[in-house]
Write a structure and sequence with these properties.
alpha/beta, Nucleotidyltransferase, domain 5, six-stranded mixed sheet
Length: 155
């Protein structure tokens, strides 16, 4: 099921299971996993996309092999609060995942996460070339960590 409201999400999903965070992109996905206690988001991989069918299969394989209970997907709302063209692409993609695998997906406002990931890399003195290779999975971890932090308030 697709959730856009965080309260509804927490009320209707098993929050004791791990979560998979996704920073959606047209060419690649950043993927992060929560730890077993759902306290910490851990950058996992940057996945180079192939085609929608394979991409969905790879994501579900990561999901199931980690005994996850839900996906947290970054939703690229514009700074003015309006939905972007990319939002439509995210919605189309996540609806295909839901249709095929009947999983729970929460769309989380991802404003500023890429900028935060870039800043983290810069402050850690990671060179730009290497930073570009990890920014997406760090962004996915930031998206997931925001949700995990909010979840603590609901427990």
């Amino acid at each position: 099921m697709l959730y856009r409201n965080i309260e509804d999400f927490f009320l209707n999903v098993d929050t004791s299971k791990k979560m998979v965070g996704i920073d959606f992109g047209e060419r690649k996905f950043g993927i992060a996993l929560s730890d077993a206690t759902n306290l910490i988001a851990i950058p996992y991989i940057v996945y180079e996309r192939c085609n929608t069918r394979k991409d969905i299969g790879v994501l579900y394989n990561i999901f199931s092999s980690n005994n996850a209970g839900s996906f947290i997907v970054g939703f690229p709302i514009q700074l003015n609060g309006q939905e972007s063209v990319m939002c439509e692409k995210v919605l189309s993609f996540v609806n295909k995942i839901i249709k095929k695998y009947k999983v729970n997906i929460y769309l989380h406002d991802e404003r500023y996460t890429t900028a935060m990931a870039t800043r983290i890399a810069k402050e850690a003195k990671i060179c730009r070339k290497k930073s570009q290779k990890i920014d997406d999975k760090v962004s996915a971890a930031l998206i997931l960590q925001q949700v995990l932090d909010i979840m603590k308030l609901y427990q």
